[in-house]
Design brief:
The protein is an alpha/beta fold. Helix content is 51%, strand content 11%. The strands form 4 sheets. Strands 2-1-3-4-5 form a 5-stranded parallel β-sheet, sandwiched between helices. A two-stranded antiparallel ribbon has the order 6-7. Helix 17 packs across helix 19. It starts with a strand and ends in a 6-residue tail after the last helix. 38% of the residues are buried. The protein binds fe (ii) ion.
């Protein structure tokens, strides 16, 4: 789904615009307050397709500041200005105020290369974007694949790049990536067919025992990305269930046969593995490490905690959201209200998503809902109590350890991370679990 940033200080307009943009244009609307907010978001999400901004917010020349940033970074992101902006009138579309949502929807559709359809005035894109990682593990596609190129100031054209009968390998996809391409486009009518094809190929690959450990981790990381995106867009369907099962089994396999932890971390960082999967894999690994040192450890505990690791942050969209581990982090984070809400509820929402997953048993649901120390899955508990399930306690300590390890502003050595954990989790059983981490890593 395309992403659009909206800067509109009026709350009513903000609601009307975003609701209609997502309904009719199918774009994901992200709110920002001013130019600096937009610029800092663009640094994390340079692939945003469109920015719609009020010409001025208070005294700030918001549109001008954003325009200058886009120019200086040579970003191709389109801009629409709400209200007059004489300095940019020749370069950018300025909509005269008051702006009606119908006009804004029409202009947005035009900027994103989407055509208006039929009498109901419902706008649908003829092509849907898919991340390049969908192509890493396939050698052919079941349909033609397109790229979107800029034709005029605000016009796009879709050009066929891979024919349905072509065969290719990952090096071709990486070459596109090196050239700065972020997404291919699939004709809307084929999108389901395409995703099922990719999912089946991935399941087959993951179930193949010939893969070496590094290849297995990279393929599982990809599968994780695809499961995450499908769940966020469409919810959990059968193809996603199959892919998640194959991924979790593959994770269990690689966690059991992991090389030295230090080498694994090096590998995860040196390759293009998403933050989400780095976290997920290391978390399963640490859970395994702690579990294998508990007297009550049973084989299926690893399967349970790996399952929870895989799904724990599945609804979160940005790394910034995933990095949050406490209510204090959440309050201080530079996120929109909606982004904060989804961080707040993510444990409960993940459980909700898994209600139709046949493998998600009660243990999994319990650990998942308690994954941030709270029995209702809402928010974060600073110092969780003794009443949680023992597996949840293991998960919480492992999760906190990994989140600190992955945060470049916090210590990354075990002897410096453990004191932070001991001082936060003061209850005896947590201290005991953390102690397991003191033993030497393999
Ligand atoms: Fe989480």
């Amino acid at each position: 789904m395309s992403q659009t940033i909206l800067v509109e200080p009026n709350d009513d307009l903000k609601k009307i615009f975003s609701l209609n943009l997502s309904t009719f244009v199918g774009t994901d609307v992200i709110f920002r307050q001013n130019a600096d907010d937009v610029i800092s978001l663009l640094k994390i999400l340079p692939q945003v397709s469109l920015i719609i901004t009020k010409s001025k917010v208070g005294q700030e020349e918001t549109a001008l500041k954003i325009f200058q940033y886009l120019k200086s970074e040579s970003l191709e992101t389109s801009l629409i200005i709400l209200g007059e902006c004489p300095k940019l009138a020749n370069d950018v579309l300025c909509l005269q105020e008051p702006v009606s949502w119908e006009v804004l929807v029409k202009q947005t559709a035009h900027h994103l290369g989407i055509t208006l359809q039929d009498a109901s005035n419902k706008i649908k894109s003829d092509y849907l974007p898919v991340g390049l990682y969908y192509f890493y593990d396939i050698q052919k596609t079941p349909c033609d694949v397109f790229i979107r190129i800029k034709k005029g100031v605000n016009e796009y054209q879709f050009v066929k790049r891979i024919h349905s009968k072509d065969t290719f390998d990952k090096s071709l996809i990486l070459r596109y990536e090196e050239q700065g391409l972020k997404e291919f486009y699939i004709p809307r009518d084929y999108i389901q067919y395409f995703t099922i094809f990719v999912t089946n190929s991935l399941v087959q690959k993951l179930e193949n025992s010939d893969m070496n450990l590094e290849e297995r981790i990279l393929t599982t990381a990809n599968a994780h990305e695809i499961v995450k995106e499908s769940i966020q867009l469409l919810g959990l369907d059968q193809a996603t269930i199959d892919l998640s099962d194959a991924s979790i089994n593959s994770m269990v396999k690689s966690v059991k046969s992991s090389p030295e932890v230090a080498n694994l971390i090096k590998f995860l960082f040196s390759n293009k593995v998403s933050y989400a999967y780095q976290h997920c894999h290391l978390l399963a690994l640490m859970c395994h490490y702690i579990l294998s040192r508990q007297s009550w450890y049973r084989e299926d505990h690893l399967q349970i905690l790996t399952f929870v690791s895989f799904f724990s942050d599945i609804t979160l969209k940005s790394n910034q959201q995933m990095e949050i581990t406490s209510m204090k982090d959440l309050f201080e984070a530079n996120l929109t209200d909606e982004e904060k809400r989804s961080v707040m509820n993510h444990a409960a929402e993940a459980v909700e998503i898994l209600k139709d997953h046949p493998e998600a048993n009660d243990y999994i649901k319990t650990v998942l809902i308690q994954s941030h120390g709270r029995a209702d899955g809402i928010g974060f508990e600073e110092n969780p109590g003794e009443d949680l399930h023992p597996l949840s306690k293991v998960f919480i300590i492992a999760d906190t350890f990994v989140k600190i390890l992955l945060n470049p502003e916090l210590p990354n050595k075990k002897q410096d991370i453990l004191p932070i954990i001991y001082s936060r989790f003061t209850n005896p059983s947590y201290q005991k679990i953390a102690k397991a981490l003191e033993q030497k890593f393999p």
